Amino acid sequence: MKASESLVGRTEDGGSVVSYSLDNGKGMSVTALNRGAIITSVLVPDAEGKTVNVTLGFATPAEYEHNNSFFGAIVGRFANRIGGARFALDGREYPLARNDGANHLHGGTRGFDKVLWRGKLITKAGAVGIRWSFTSRDGEEGYPGTLKVTAEYTLSESNELSLEYWALSSAATPVNITNHAYWNLAGAGNGLILDHELTCSGPFYLPVDSGLIPTGEVRPTAGTPFDFSSPKRIGSDIEKIPGGYDHCLVMAKPADTMGHACTARDPESGRTMTVSTTMPGFQFYTGNFLKNDPFPQHGGFCVETQHFPDSVNIGHFPSCILRPGMTYHHRTVYAFSVSGRGSSKGV
User: Fold this and answer.
1) CA distances from 144 to 148, 166, 171 (A)
2) Geometric angle at alpha carbon 130, from 298 and 254, rounded to 5°
3) Helical residues (DSSP H) of the chain, grouped into ranges
């Protein structure tokens, strides 16, 4: 197993952009930038050992400067949307940036995806990785409390990419951190993901309004286009969802325990990705807003493991509030494997 780092450029304001590379010696490798802790490539073999990059991204660090698709980045302080770009906490109102129509998206105009993280290569039993750290100041992007964040990306000998996050705050604040990687198991730029087969464990989903803010309802997926309880093409029912999938699926498991979120498979190559997480849900997004920049609409899909969108404003959703003395913790594992080519039975 190998790990390395190299200076690859400068940000527009003069910061050093460093690329970190992880190689598990089993045919899988991962690269990431300290800007936004962006995962820039995930090379995975197929049944014949042919390796391709299965995550969407750019060829050069400079191309990430003005792109708003969040390719491969850590997003926060609050991933996903906060309705009306405001929340009330302990009797005080906190206005936030309106960077998604009338709503707040992925931490604001300068969220975690746009800052330089401090990176350090690490070695663990059977794995190599990167430890990231960043401190978000009190009042940054409108959020209360100084938030100290640590994250680790580790690549194991068994082709598992683990993403783990911790945070401490000096004051009560909403925290919802995730990674916004887009996946195409046929290879980034190699067609659309509509023929990928998806199996999800979430028996419920969150309906949304026209601004993609949850209504507060929690509905069963059974009998709806959100039902992926058995392998189903992503494209089978996508036309029944205005704009495509951009919804939170709710998992049925004890809080803070690891559980299966979903399994995606490309029938052509046989590449399979299984996602497990400690979070209560995940945003399933089918790249609806991609516009050939440089990938087409539905050129990738996201499985953003997280707290529910707008949970800071919807009291019966699991709490996303981190208070002094508490530790935020979230772990997600992307496990890659290969199965036989062709569609699964029943699809």
Assistant:
1) 12, 17, 6
2) 65
3) none
Under a CB-based contact definition with an 8 Å cutoff, are residues 300 and 288 in contact? no
Interacting residues of 83 by C-beta distance below 8 A, sequence separation 6+: 103, 211, 213, 310, 313
**Would you say 130 and 120 are in contact if contact means Cβ atoms under 8 Å apart?**
yes
- CA dist 167 and 311 (Å) reads 18
**Domain residue limits, the chain:** 2-338
Let me know: does 238 contact 232? Beta carbons within 8 Å: no
3-state secondary structure of 62: helix
Q: What is the DSSP letter of 35?
A: B
**For residues 194 and 232, what is the distance between their CA atoms, to the nearest angstrom?**
10
CB 125: neighbour CB atoms within 10 A? 6
Catalytic residue among 160, 247, 304, 307: 304
Dihedral (Cα; 46, 52, 56, 57), 10-degree rounding: 160
Exactly one of 104, 180, 196, 307 is catalytic; name it: 180
Q: Is there a catalytic annotation at residue 247?
A: no
CATH code, residues 2-338: 2.70.98.10
Rounded to an integer, what distance in angstroms lies between the CA atom of residue 136 and that of residue 76? 10
DSSP-assigned letter for residue 63: G
**Which residue has 């690269």 as its token pair?**
31
pLDDT in tens, the chain (347 residues): 999 999 999 999 999 999 999 999 999 999 999 999 999 999 999 988 899 999 999 999 999 998 899 999 999 999 999 999 999 999 999 999 999 999 999 999 999 999 999 999 999 999 999 999 999 999 999 999 999 999 999 999 999 999 999 999 999 999 999 999 999 999 999 999 999 999 999 999 999 999 999 999 999 999 999 999 999 999 999 999 999 999 999 999 999 999 999 999 999 999 999 999 999 999 999 999 999 989 999 999 999 999 999 999 999 999 999 999 999 999 999 999 998 766 664 33
In angstroms, the CA 245 to CA 282 distance is 12
* C-alpha distance from residue 328 to each of 13, 23, 165 (Å): 31, 29, 8
260 is catalytic: no
pTM (2 d.p.):
0.96
